[in-house]
Each structure stands twice: as structure tokens, then as C-alpha cells.
Write a structure and sequence with these properties.
This protein folds into 2 domains: about 25-65 and about 115-275 and about 310-430, Outer membrane efflux proteins (OEP) (Up-down Bundle); about 65-115 and about 280-310. Helix 4 (about 120-185) packs antiparallel against helix 6 (about 255-275) and helix 7 (about 320-385) runs antiparallel to helix 8. It contains 8 helices and 6 strands. Helix content is about 65%, strand content about 10%. This is Outer membrane efflux protein.
Length: about 425
């Protein structure tokens, strides 16, 4: 078999059986994994489920309820009526008990609140609003986790690029060291030049170790956010796209949370006002027991009871009114907090937009700096080959080229990260974010 065909088949087989965990995941895939597996999101989803179940329970508590009861009671004394002895009526008992020492009772009771000053209705509404509050919390937590994944992923990509650039710089130094050895043998260079190159290489090696450590930390952060090891894809600068994002403060998480809390507080005011009204309830029960309703016979019997109950608190030292005033004060507090948060969010968005525009304006500058650094490196290398430039000149040009290459790549990464931050601050849904 042709060796090339053999190698091609082997590579295809390895690719087919290579586990997904060893394949590089894109940023979108990393975000999707985090939304499915992040522990903070799982906890928030359970909090939402808890509120949803409580809202359903609150509604069902407004429906008629059926209760079963059973009890036994023993008393030590029972009232009785003693009759004087009458010779003409010998069949009459001398005494009649008006109760029983032992009482047995079972019952099935239906209860239903007919009117409570709309307190029940508003409690159900409040529980639904609390459920919606947790839903908003979940959406905001998803956006937060997504942005944290983006930041960690971009940070890891930056460290990958830094490692690539440093390795390229070390290769240039290594190539120059090989060349300087031959020049030293020919007496055309000094041993000091070799030491200078070794020192430059050691400095690059130190930077490489630091970059590798930072990459490991970024990968660990991604693993914490996603629940699994993420293999980072190499960064490719996305095509230039204009930025046309308008902030909608009312759709941002902090503003929506305060707005929902304000709605809940409005409902709490209505619940407080419900105490000014009477509460009316109806009940009906089926009972079976002994002696039942006939204390004289004292036999097992069944019977029914129905009725209505009315309760109305007429005086409580104005406690209800004070509670209502406290709820209204909380409502006004939330209103002021909403206005403050609106201003803060607008300021954060404007600052992020201004920073992105600054990066955009700097883009041509960093590209031009890289072009100049490459030209300088080319000239210095040529002059050094002719013995017209020193090792110091070479190290300086190499360092400037390294910094220029890093600046260009970092600048592109910063622009993509800043764009994601603008999406995060704009209030747009996560599905509408631009993730290049």
C-alpha cells in the first residue's frame, strides 16, 4: 500500500474515534455547554422551579378544601336530672344523663373562603410575581455566565497567541545563536555577543513560562464555568463588522429585577389593605359518631352541619395602616433605585461604547507599528549579517517586533471582547449576541 494512503487512512480512523473532549470547542459551543452544565445555573433553575410550585400551591389553596377528622373524648362528670320517686309511674327512670362519658366522632368537612378583601387573589398574584422574579434572575444569570465564559475563553486565546509569538521570538534568537557561534570561530564576533543572545533567550523563556501558567489558569476557569475541560480553538480575527447597538435599559437584568420587585410591592400594598375588610367563609360537614346529636339515646348516628363564618378585625392600634404605609415607602424606595440603576447602566454602556470606538481608532496605528517593526527587524538582521549592527541592536529589534505582534493580536481580541461586553450591557437577549 502507498505510504501516503496508509497515513491518510490512519488519520481518518483516529479522527473518527477521537473523543469529543479532545477536539477543540468553539466559543459558541463552550457557552452552550456552560448553559447546560454550570452549577450556578442549575441552582437558579431549582430556585425558579421552587417558586413555580409555590405559585401553583397558592392558587390551589384558594379552592374548596376537604378535611377528615376523628377523635375520642372521655369526661369524668356528666350532667343528669334526678326525678323524685312517683308511685303512680313506676316505669320512669329515677335519673336521666344529659351526656356521655365517652364520645366518638368522625367528620368530613368542606371549607371555602367566600371573601377575604381580595387578599387570597393578591397572594396568588404575589406568588406568580415571585416566580417571574426568579425567571428574570435565571435569564440574568445565564447572560452573566455567558459573558464570563467569553472573557475566560478570550483570555485563553490571548495567552495562546502570546505563547506563539514568544516561541517565534525564541526561534529567531536560536537561529542567531547558531550563526554567532560560527562567527566566533572565524574571529568575526565576540563571546560577549553570545552571552547577550543567551540572556535574551532566557528572558523570553521566563515570559513563556508565565504565559503558559496564565493559560492553565484560564483553562481552569473555563472548566469551572462549563463543568468540563474545554479545548480552546486558535483565534482567527473575525471580519470587520460595524457596531450598531442601542441600549434598552428597561430590558437589562438589574432594571427588570427592580421593576418586578416594585410590582410585587404594589401587590403587597393591596394585601395590607385587605385587612380593612371582613373575611367570610362557608363550611359543610358530614359527621358520624356516638352519641351524635342525641345525648339521651347515646347511639351511633350520622348527621350534617353547615354554616358560614364572619371575622373582622375592628381595632388593632393602627397596625394595619402602618404596615400599608411601610409598603408604600418601600414602593417609592424601589422607584428611586430604578432611576439610579437606569443612569448607572446608561453610563456603563456609554463607557464601553467609547472604549470600543477608541480601540477602533487605534487599529490602524497598531497595524502600522507592526509593519515598521518588521521592516526594522529585516534591516537590523541584514546589517548584523554584514557586521554593521550589534547584538544589542538585534535584541532590541526582536523585542520590538515581539511586542508589536502581541499588540496587534491583543487588540483584535480586545475588540471582540468589548463587543461582547456591549451586547451584555445593552439588554439584548443572549440569542441576539454577536459572538464571532
Amino acid at each position: 500500500m502507498n505510504p501516503l494512503k496508509y497515513l491518510l487512512m490512519l488519520s481518518l480512523i483516529l479522527a473518527a474515534f477521537c473523543p469529543a473532549s479532545l477536539q477543540a470547542q468553539s466559543l459558541e459551543q463552550a457557552i452552550k455547554i456552560a448553559l447546560d452544565q454550570n452549577k450556578e445555573l442549575k441552582a437558579q433553575k431549582q430556585a425558579l422551579r421552587k417558586r413555580q410550585l409555590e405559585a401553583r400551591a397558592a392558587f390551589r389553596q384558594t379552592l374548596p378544601s376537604l378535611d377528615f377528622g376523628a377523635w375520642y373524648r372521655h369526661v369524668t362528670h356528666v350532667a343528669q336530672i334526678d326525678f323524685p320517686a312517683l308511685p303512680t309511674l313506676p316505669a320512669l327512670p329515677s335519673a336521666v344523663r344529659l351526656g356521655r362519658y365517652d364520645t366518638y366522632e368522625t367528620s368530613l368537612t368542606i371549607k371555602h373562603v367566600l371573601f377575604s378583601g381580595f387578599a387570597q387573589k393578591n397572594r396568588v398574584r404575589l406568588m406568580s410575581q415571585m416566580s417571574e422574579l426568579e425567571h428574570i434572575n435565571l435569564e440574568e444569570k445565564e447572560k452573566e455566565i455567558a459573558f464570563r465564559v467569553i472573557a475566560a475563553y478570550r483570555n485563553a486565546q490571548e495567552k495562546q497567541l502570546e505563547i506563539e509569538v514568544i516561541k517565534a521570538s525564541m526561534e529567531r534568537v536560536a537561529w542567531q545563536m547558531k550563526r554567532i557561534k560560527s562567527l566566533i570561530k572565524q574571529g568575526m564576533a565576540l563571546g560577549l555577543d553570545s552571552l547577550s543572545l543567551k540572556l535574551a533567550r532566557l528572558n523570553y523563556h521566563k515570559q513563556l513560562i508565565a504565559a503558559q501558567g496564565a493559560l492553565a489558569i484560564a483553562e481552569k476557569q473555563l472548566k469551572e464555568l462549563t463543568g468540563q475541560k474545554i479545548t480552546i480553538q486558535s483565534f482567527n480575527e473575525p471580519p470587520e463588522v460595524g457596531l450598531n447597538v442601542m441600549p434598552v435599559v428597561q430590558l437589562t437584568g438589574p432594571y427588570r429585577l427592580l421593576d418586578q420587585q416594585q410590582q410585587m410591592q404594589s401587590t403587597a400594598v393591596k394585601i395590607s389593605r385587605a385587612r380593612y375588610f371582613p373575611a367570610l367563609a362557608a363550611f359543610a360537614s358530614y359527621n358520624y359518631g356516638r352519641p351524635g346529636l342525641d345525648m339521651i339515646k347515646g347511639e351511633w348516628m350520622d348527621y350534617g352541619i353547615w354554616g358560614v363564618s364572619l371575622s373582622w378585625n375592628l381595632f388593632s392600634w393602627n397596625a394595619d395602616r402602618l404596615n400599608e404605609q411601610a409598603a408604600r415607602a418601600r414602593f417609592k424606595q424601589l422607584d428611586w433605585q430604578k432611576q439610579a440603576v437606569k443612569d448607572q447602566l446608561q453610563t456603563r454602556f456609554d463607557r464601553a461604547l467609547r472604549e470600543w470606538q477608541t480601540l477602533k481608532e487605534q487599529q490602524d496605528v497598531v497595524q502600522a507599528a507592526l509593519k515598521v517593526a518588521r521592516q526594522k527587524m529585516k534591516v537590523v538582521a541584514a546589517r548584523y549579517a554584514q557586521g554593521m549592527a550589534s547584538v544589542t541592536d538585534f535584541n532590541e529589534a526582536n523585542l520590538q517586533l515581539t511586542e508589536a505582534q502581541l499588540n496587534v493580536k491583543r487588540h483584535a481580541l480586545l475588540m471582540t471582547l468589548k463587543r461582547s461586553e456591549i451586547d451584555y450591557l445593552s439588554g439584548k437577549p443572549l440569542t441576539q449576541w454577536s459572538i464571532p
